[in-house]
Amino acid sequence: MNIIGLYNYWIVVVLMAIGFFIVIAHENLIKKLIGLSIFQTAVFFLYISMGKVVGGTAPILDDKWHLYSNPLPHVLILTAIVVGISTTAVGLALVVRIQEAYGSIEEHEIQTLNAQDQIECQLEAYGFMKNNAFSVKSLDE
Amino acid sequence: MITHYPVLQVIIPLIGAPLCLLFPVPRLAGLFALLVSSLAFLVSCGLLQQVMVHGTLVYALGGWAAPWGIEYRIDYLNSYLLLLVSSMSTVVLIAAQSSIRRELPQNRQTYFYTAYLLCLTGLLGILATGDAFNVFVFLEISSLSSYTLIALGTDRRALTASYQYLIMGTIGATFIIIGVGLMYMMTGTLNMNDLAERLPEVNHSRTVLSAFGFFIVGVCLKLALFPLHLWLPNAYAFAPSIATAFLAATATKVAVYVLIRYVFTVFGIEYVESVLPLQEIFLVLGLVGIFAASVSAIYQLNIKRLFAYSSVAQIGYMILGLAIGTQLGLAATLLHMFNHALMKGALFLAIGSVVYRINSSQLNHMAGLGRKMPWTMAAIVIGGLSLVGVPLTVGFVSKWYLVLALLEKGWWLVTVLVLISSLLALIYVWRIIEWVYFTPARIHLSEVREAPLSQLVPVWILVIANIYFGLDTSLTVGVSKLAAQSLFGLFGAAP
Q: Family per UniProt (chain B) (predicted)?
C-alpha cells in the first residue's frame, strides 16, 4: 500500500480526527467552534486532493497545456467554504449572546444554570414557590 | 411558465426572503411572507398535478444538460412532499401573524420572517433537486436559518439549544459532504441518476462503503433518529411557537426524504442490504427510540418539550417502516410522514395559541384552560388522539398501514410492541387532558379568553385535515403507494 503517496489523505484523516475530538472534548464554546472549523477544513482538503491530476495545471484554455486538474471539486469547495464561514459566523454570534445571557461560555457552567432554570419550573409546578403568580401579558390585542 | 415550475418552486421563496427585509413594518413583512408561501403552495399544487398526468418532470437548471448542470427532478415522492412542506408553511404563516407579534420584540419580527422564508427555500430545494451536492447546499440553507429561528426564542435556553443544534447539525452536514465527496471520487458524477447507474460498477470498493456509512450517519443526525436526537427536544421547546410548528411539521420529514432517496434511488436497496444490516439497525433503533422517547415525553412538564419527545418517537415509526424493507412498509413510512406533519402542525399551532394567551407552555400553568379556551384545547385533544392512533384520525391510518406491513412481513412481536407503544402515547396525552380539564383553574386565568380567530382558523384547518385524511385516504394512501412503487419498481435506475 502506497502510504507516502497518499500523504494528503493522511493529513485529511488526522485533521478530521483532531477537529472532531476538539468538538467533543472541549468545554469552551469558542474552542468547540474552532474544532468544528478544523473538521470542515479537513473535508475541503479531501475534495481538493481528489481533483488533482498529476502534472495537470489550472484549467485555462491555452495551446501550451493539455493536462488540466479537475476544477469541479474546487468549485464545490468554494461553496462549502461559504457555508463553513456562515456556520462559524452564526455560531460565534450565538456565543456572544450566550455570554450576555449566562455570563459564561463554559459548557458545564451553562448546564448548571440551565438545570437551575429547570428546577425552578418544577418547584413552581408542585407549589413550592411562594410567588406563583406568573405574568399574564396584557390581554388586549 | 408551466415548464419552469420546478425551479419556481425554489426561487420564489429564495427571492422573497431578502425582499422581506425591505419592509419597514413587521406586519407587512409577515403578510408578504404569507403571500410568498402561498405562491409556493400554488406552484407545488401545479407540480403534483403535472406529475400525476405526465410522470417524472426533469428540469435542467440554466439550460445546462444533466451531467454538467444541476438537474431538478420531480417525481411522485418529491411532488407529494413539496405539497406537504409548502402547504404546512402557508398554514403556519397564517397563525404566525398574530403569534409573532406577541412573542417576539418588534425589531426582530422582520428577521424572523426572512429566516423563515430561507428555511422554506432550503427545505423545498432539498426536495426538488436531483444533484447530490445541491442537497448539501440546501440542507445548510435550511439548517442555518433554523438555528436563527430557534435562537429567536425569548427564553435564554433557546440560545444554548440553538448552539447545540448548530454543532450537531454541522457535524451531520459535514458527514454528508464527506459521503458525497467519496461517491464523486469513485464515479465522477454528482447527478443522482448517474450515481445510481455508476455506483453498481464500483460497489465492491471500500470507498463506496465508507461513503454510504458517512452519509447514513449524517442524515440520521439530521432526522434525529434515536441516540442522535439530543438536539431536538430543547430546540423545539424553546424556539418561538411558530418556528416549532414549522420545523416539527417539515424539517425532520425532509431529512427522512433524503434518507429514502439515497437508500432507494442512489445506492439501491440491494446494495444497502448486502453491505450493512441496515434493516436490523433501523428496526432496533426505531423501536428503542419509540419507547425511550415516549417514556421521556410522559415525564415532561413543558408541553412543547413533551411533544418534541413525541416527535422523536414518531420518527421511530417512520424508520420502522423503512426497516421492514417492503413496498408496503415504505408506503407506511411515506404516509406517516404526511400524517405526522398534520398532527404536529395542529398541536404546535394550538400550543402557540396557548402561549399567546397565557405566555407559558408549562402544563401546570394550563390548569383549567379547557373552559377558558375550549376550541384550542379541543384541537389539542383531537391532535393528541391522532398521535395515539384513534380511528377516524390520520394517526390511525398510518398505524394501520404500518401494522399491515409488519404482519405481511410476519413480525408479530414488533407488531405487539408498536401497539403497546401507542398506549404510552395515550398516557402523555391523558396527562395533558388531566391538567387542562380536571385541574381547577387558577385565579389569574379569569381574564384569559379564547385564542383570536386568526389563530383558531389555521389550527382548525389542520385539525379538520387530521379528520378528513383519516376518513378519505384516497390522496395520501394513493400517492404514497405510487411513490413506494416507483422507488421499488426501478431500484438503481431512474426514479
A: Belongs to the CPA3 antiporters (TC 2.A.63) subunit D family.
